[in-house]
User: Which sequence fits this backbone?
């Protein structure tokens, strides 16, 4: 089975041009088939503010009315995505920027209104793995913005990049041996949040439950790890969580970051 | 030889949601291989104004400093491009949005500074016709924003959509029988600018020279027609200039718009 890296890069790295450039150099150097899913960063909030559009967040998720949808479509689908694509092309990586609407690679459903109306926010409904596979076999490197679309209305939908990454990884696991890699600004999952070097090298599901029960792993890491373990249980071969600067080391020999493994 | 439509849609139609929707329905209905190149419209100027960035135009061309480059990358590459792609997907057309940087489909050179420094403005250097052809044969409909890129720096470059359309048409003329179609808000090239129905049905190069000498054709139409005749002299089978609402009629039976033909 051919190998595939599905790599997610978070917003904090995107907000820092030097860190982003280091990450993209490392990403470009990896010889495997690969897909990058990027977050949005703080630029959308800054642009919205300048345009006089108020940002409302609930549990870290952006409420996306029509004006905010236009902002994230501009910033994520335009500025952030094309900046990354241009930089990768300059580094001889044949990047192609995509939202879920492009070639219909990721269809979604607008999130139903329950206690909170998130607005134009999408939950992934279907990943077109044949199309992504065709791009990969055509020598292309898909760079996916955190935007999906509703095929019924044609509307773009703001979508969480972490869940997009795990959905893409799971969908491609039938055709590739997939390593899903979450890159962010920490060295991995920490056993002590005050010590940046206290990286847990490996976590199996039973240990994860124990860490959660003890409160060692909490808050923002829980949805990320829930996503990651779900991917592992659905055919993804390996999940890695690492610092953006340690991508190559984490992928090539596993000596950096946290590896999530099946029991 | 397979047929290919290379269609350019101008900014005035993009600024009008109803007109854009009518045009896209018509575009989606055409069964041929097709590529759409879209202009930017006035949204970039409006967004720039709200962001406190001044718009400077020289001879109808936008001076593009770094702040303005970010605006056009957001608006053309994000908002306008993805809005079109989403609408076409909703109309069952398998659209894929591209800038020149995506899959390196259109490389450019930053325009040299002479009397005027246009800033981050690109002149097309190379069209990757094999990649565009692969997309077409893969059942995709490329939707190209008026942005190219400089492979040496990785920088996006603001680029005139008319010249991008003729460059794409010429590059693909070796592999396809290309009909290049310029859609705008007039019914064609007019023999009397005060009479919207005075459409000249056909123009050959000698007649074009005569019309220019008499002043029948002038101003903004001249660069457009110079581009169009250059395409015709470089392998493009047919050039059509028509109203956005008459796309299907102009393409299917030639009874609308102006056809440019070789002598």
Assistant:
């Amino acid at each position: 089975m051919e190998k595939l890296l599905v790599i997610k890069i978070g917003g904090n790295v995107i907000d820092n041009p030097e860190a982003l450039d280091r990450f993209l150099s490392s990403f470009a150097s990896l010889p495997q088939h690969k897909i990058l899913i990027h977050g949005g960063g703080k630029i959308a909030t800054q642009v919205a503010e300048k345009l006089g559009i108020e940002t409302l967040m609930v549990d870290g998720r952006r409420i996306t009315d029509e004006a905010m949808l236009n902002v994230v479509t501009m910033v994520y689908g335009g500025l952030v995505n094309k900046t990354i694509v241009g930089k990768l092309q300059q580094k001889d990586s044949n990047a192609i920027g995509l939202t879920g609407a492009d070639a219909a690679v990721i269809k979604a459903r607008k999130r139903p209104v329950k206690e909170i109306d998130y607005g134009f926010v999408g939950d992934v409904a279907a990943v077109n793995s044949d199309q992504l596979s065709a791009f990969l076999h055509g020598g292309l490197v898909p760079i996916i913005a955190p935007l999906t679309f509703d095929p019924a209305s044609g509307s773009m939908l703001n979508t969480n990049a972490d869940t997009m990454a795990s959905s893409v990884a799971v969908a491609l696991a039938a055709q590739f041996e997939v390593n899903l890699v979450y890159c962010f600004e920490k060295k991995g999952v920490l056993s002590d949040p005050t010590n940046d070097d206290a990286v847990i090298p490996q976590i199996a599901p039973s240990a994860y439950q124990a860490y959660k029960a003890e409160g060692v792993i909490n808050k923002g890491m829980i949805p990320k790890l829930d996503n990651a373990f779900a991917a592992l249980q659905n055919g993804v071969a390996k999940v890695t969580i690492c610092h953006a600067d340690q991508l190559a080391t984490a992928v090539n020999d596993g000596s950096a970051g946290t590896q999530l493994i099946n029991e």
